[in-house]
Amino acid sequence: MDAPSWPVGWRCLLLVALVGSARGQGARSCEEVGKLFQGRLAGAVPGLPGSPRAGPDLQVCTSEKPTCCTRKMEERYQTAAHQDMQQALQTSSSTLKFLISRNAAAFQETLETLIRQAENYTSILFCNTYRNMAIEAAASVQEFFTDVGLYLFGADVNPEEFVNRFFDSLFPLVYDHLINPGVADSSLEYSECIRMARRDLSPFGNIPQRVMGQMGRSLLPSRTFLQALNLGIEVINTTDHLHFSKECSRAILRMQYCPHCQGLTLSKPCMGYCLNVMRGCLAHMAELNPHWHAFIRSLEELSDAMHGKYDIEHVLLNFHLLVNDAVMQAHLDGPKLSDQVNKICGRPSRTPTQSPRCSFDESKQKYGMQISARNEEETLANRRKEFINSLRLHRTFYGALADQLCVNHLAAADGLPCWNGEDIVKSYSQRVVGNGIKDQSGNPEIKVKGTDPVINQIIDKLKHVIQLLQGRSPKPNKWELQMGSGGGLAEQVSGDCDDEDGCGASGSGEVKRTLKVADYNQ
Length: 522
Description:
The chain has helices at about 10-25, 30-40, 70-130, 130-150, 160-180, 190-200, 205-240, 245-255, 260, 270-280, 285, 290-305, 310-315, 320-330, 335-345, 360-365, 380-390, 395-410, 455-470; strands at about 185, 350, 420, 425, 480-485, 490-495. A two-stranded antiparallel sheet has the order 1-2. Strands 3-4 form a two-stranded antiparallel ribbon. A two-stranded antiparallel sheet has the order 5-6. α3 runs parallel beside α14 (about 320-330), α7 packs antiparallel against α19 and α10 (about 270-280) runs antiparallel to α18. By secondary structure, it is mainly alpha-helical.
């Protein structure tokens, strides 16, 4: 049923009555003001006025009318206004902050799980197929994946170095157990000679280079993505606790609590008045908006690029297949490698040995190494996509913050009597300025001076991480990444997936398949 239509004259009379009622709230007594003051500021405060009186000592809530405030009350109101502002900022950013922090933690946890899975797959490969060297290889496998985790989560380690270190340590084991099976030299010096010869002899073909390329294209973007999320949390934490100028604090006090001094405890500021005050107070924060928008756009571009064969999930969970290809390559070239090692390191003093074998599930030997298929809806790429879709809704957070505070929390609804900084009025008559520092020159409620060094520092950090994010985003056809803790391996490769990139050739199936490889220990 439609609401009754009131004649214009009756609506005007109703509005005048409301204004008159609001103006008369505290005319007779300050009792309600005192109750709200003590309730808001916790506990009894001596010396509260019982009725309105002159307030010549007030600094901000000045009025020609009698007042219910003392200088001490005004100071306490100033503290309350500052606390209210901090609370309003934290409430406004809580959804965004929770979104980023929850997903940053979830992504890190998922990456940790992927690393453990990849390490387990590699250990199972040795246990099932190369059992004689499994125990000796365990330390190298563990060290490799520890380094992967350290790099992903920000440590100063070099991927090129730990990839080389892994294959360096693998070659003596392959040489002792596959190329010269059943015998080994007793000296550590001989094993060290073989290890040092690996890079010259290339026993594993181009597999180490392929691993480096895949790690470079997957680890570095994921590392940068996590670092960017942590910076996003830092930005929000900083702006949640931003220090406001004295001019802003006085303006908020005048807007929020000065009406109480006139007994207007139920009043709210006019929308235009609120916008002027909040846009002035948050003018420096509004300068973050274009950089925050670019930050989210760069995160989105990087996330979109982290798909396909070089998605970190694919690279980590298929690492064991490349290790198997590398070992088979060395085994096939065994006679040639044996002659080359003899020339470089000499012939070993051959001593029969029996290497310890790892324990394993006999069913795996019978049925092959079963690796379960991944649920496509639970992949890391899909989780990133869902996160970015949610984050995109907050692209204009800092540019719209002042308006949201007024619309959602502070200002009176349109058409209702409201506080204009001096009295209850039908509507605010002053000019309403825009957002940002440049628009504040004509702000009638607050003067905005200079720049905020904290905001400038945040802007510099956002600019830096945006450059990092854009530098880690591959182009559709080509990309170039610096691999290492600070750089070390630069390679420019085609974005297309081919056999040399290790995308499924050379006998390497994907993790969705059952891996069945020859047992070299039978």
